[in-house]
Amino acid sequence: MGKSINSLSQSELVYAIKSNDPNVLKFFYTENYTKIESLILKNSGSIEYAKDIYQDAFITVWTHIKNDKFVPKNDTALQGYLYKIAKNKWMDVLRSKSFKNLKSLNYETLVYIKDEKDENIDLKNNKLKIAMLAFKNLGQPCKKLLSTFYFDKKSIKDIASELKIEETTARNKKYRCMEKLRALVLASK
Amino acid sequence: MNDNSDISQELLEIIERYINGSMTSQELKDFNQLLELDNEFKVKVEDIKTMLLGIEAQSLKEQLDILHKDIPKTIVKKPVDKKVKYLNFSKIAAAAAVIIAIGSIWFFSTPKNEKLYANHFKPDPGLPTTMSSTNNYDFYDAMVKYKHGDYNIAIDKWKILSEQKPENDTLNYFLGVAYMANKNTSEAIPFLERSVEAPDEFVFLNEAYYYLGLAYLKEGNVELAKKNLSLSETDASKLVLSKLTK
């Protein structure tokens, strides 16, 4: 990257996040956390919940960027967007019946509240959750291979040379991993 | 998602190329046509797209905890600061306690050595200053000052001579003794150490060991004090040694 991360324009930031640039992701993640943490701490939350809600919001924002749901309008649009989503997520927790009935929050109730909310989530989002869960439970070698290819965006050629196998073998491995993943997704439908 | 949908490796790679936008314009045209005609195929493509996004999203999610460690701790800074302050305070308190402990050991233990030193230290009477030898005029000039108790002047003068003759045992001995008389035992020790390295016929060897022993006694190094005192054959040395080993 020629520029320092701080001077990236919003569209550059969006582009870098779309391509999973590790430096930009790290910057974007670490830069925005404290604001959201203090919001949640001031509103009956704890550091644990702050982290949980923030990571949720972060994945949501990332997904929206990937799906072109987010178009930046000003210089801090993306940062503001992340804040807004995290805030809404926390408000959902605070407003939920389960939370109101509780005297104190613990991790189990937070997960429960989130699941309660998830029932109303649109079908597409639900499909993504299923895919994520399936990938989470995939065997480690397949996970590594698919993650390196789809997330780190490494070429099959590089992956093959790293694993010391033929390129065609690597492609076939990748295909079989995808089939496994598809089977897991279908099974959880 | 279609349960009986087998996708060949070739088809999967074509769909992937469609998703990541690396198709040629002709390919894309054909592909879009197929999507319009075959609704089932369209669903299949959508599902694969979701799956690929799921791989990426989950990969990212699993990296967030690592990213989280790099967040600068600004929010929790206040309580941490307080803690640090308390910590520092207790450290200071601990340090103070140690200093007091050491100080009291010094305070209660040194008087014995100090007393012994004070009782026994008398400056060397010095050499008779007849000034017969013009060669040694500077040396005896300083000796006069020494005998008058002008130790600073004596030391300054002898030091000039010492720079010319650093191996002169007599000079080293009197410099050491002058420093001791001037209540500067730490400066005295190196000169006395050099003077005791003199050959056995050195006239002040016993005295040099005696004063060196006293100097170490004053500095609190009882072991070295004993060692040097025992090397001296003077009565004064034996007396101090007997009191030390008592």
UniProtKB/TrEMBL annotation, chain A:
GO terms for biological process: DNA-templated transcription initiation. One of its GO terms (molecular function) is sigma factor activity. Residues 29-98 form the RNA polymerase sigma-70 region domain. InterPro entries: RNA_pol_sigma-70-like, RNA_pol_sigma-70_dom, RNA_pol_sigma70_r2, RNA_pol_sigma_r2, RNA_pol_sigma_r3/r4-like, WH-like_DNA-bd_sf. Keywords: Sigma factor, Transcription, Transcription regulation. Belongs to the sigma-70 factor family. ECF subfamily. This is RNA polymerase sigma-70 region 2 domain-containing protein. The lineage of its organism: Bacteria, Pseudomonadati, Bacteroidota, Flavobacteriia, Flavobacteriales.
TrEMBL record, chain B:
It comes from the Bacteria. It holds the Pfam family TPR_16. The chain crosses the membrane at residues 86-108. Keywords: Membrane, Transmembrane, Transmembrane helix. This is Uncharacterized protein. The lineage of its organism: Bacteria, Pseudomonadati, Bacteroidota, Flavobacteriia, Flavobacteriales.
